[in-house]
Amino acid sequence: MTDTTILDQDRDAGFGDYFALLKPRVMSLVVFTALVGLLVAPGQINPFVGLCAILFIAVGGGASGALNMWWDADIDARMKRTIKRPIPAGKVEPGEALGLGVALTGFSVILLFLATNWVAGALLAFTIFFYVVIYTMWLKRWTPQNIVIGGAAGAFPPMIGWAAVTGDITIESILMFALTFAWTPPHFWSLALFVKSDYKDAGVPMLTVTHGRRVTRNHILGYTFVLAAVALGLGLTSIGGPAYMAVAVILNGWFIKGAIDIWRRTDADSEADSHLVERKFFKFSLFYLFIHFGMLLVETSLAPLGLGGW
């Protein structure tokens, strides 16, 4: 067997490579928030239909990931944290990723529509379109506000889960959307503060690259205050309650403190110390959203006992 043959075999794509195209870590957030939206929604849904709905939403999220990796293969090849993705690593051909993304898009949208209702199906279709076309193909390479506007794509899943049950859009589902939407900028900008060279090398106009660290810190603080207001506002709706509100007050107090710690950093501070503060805030942000949505589930579970809700 020649060395060339061995090399070709090493580069053959396996199931794990195609699964990686679906961005499973991102999908976990999509699935969880969609599940919460479905479970806290008023009304009833057949458990099997509900399970299918979550599956189709997850597949739709995976389709978005595959199409994103197809379009962004050139950027991924220039960034340290993405260079090992299946396409830049040479495991999967770009055309295969495109075909997989398109196929999964059609599959997920049509079956969600058939299993639930047209509102949920339309929201899923719009989510995929927004993430792939509006964010990936347009905003990401054009404006430093890419994360702000593009964050809407990741904020739709709880609305879709809610609509799968109710066939409607209400203030509760809008505020669940707003919670994820407002969380996205401070979450990703804190990451960008300590991986700035990655975005610069790839030519992505992240705020840290175009406007610098001081402006980015200011934006993180501003959006954190907006996020706290949304989180507390959600607690005052029919799906909130005392337990959610108590946890939200504590979490947002910590989050605001973390944003202030970042805001206080200056260019005179050592880079190592600044990165330590930024990484701490970023890691906390990973749990922030899961805990808030988890507390919505707690309120729903307490409601039959007369302990949840206002």
Automatic annotation (TrEMBL):
Q: Gene3D superfamilies from the xrefs?
A: UbiA prenyltransferase
Q: State the compartments where it is located.
A: Cell membrane
Q: Does the keyword Cell membrane apply?
A: yes
Provide the Gene Ontology terms for cellular component.
plasma membrane
A Pfam family matched by this chain, by name?
UbiA
Top enzyme class, one word, equals transferase
Q: Which residues cross the membrane?
A: 26-42, 48-71, 92-114, 120-139, 146-165, 171-195, 220-237, 243-263, 284-307
Purpose of the protein: Converts heme B (protoheme IX) to heme O by substitution of the vinyl group on carbon 2 of heme B porphyrin ring with a hydroxyethyl farnesyl side group.
Assembly description: Interacts with CtaA.
The miscellaneous comment for this protein is: Carbon 2 of the heme B porphyrin ring is defined according to the Fischer nomenclature.
> What is stated as this protein's family in its record?
Belongs to the UbiA prenyltransferase family. Protoheme IX farnesyltransferase subfamily.
- What is this protein called in UniProt? Protoheme IX farnesyltransferase
- What is the originating organism of this protein? Maritimibacter alkaliphilus HTCC2654
Gene that encodes it: ctaB
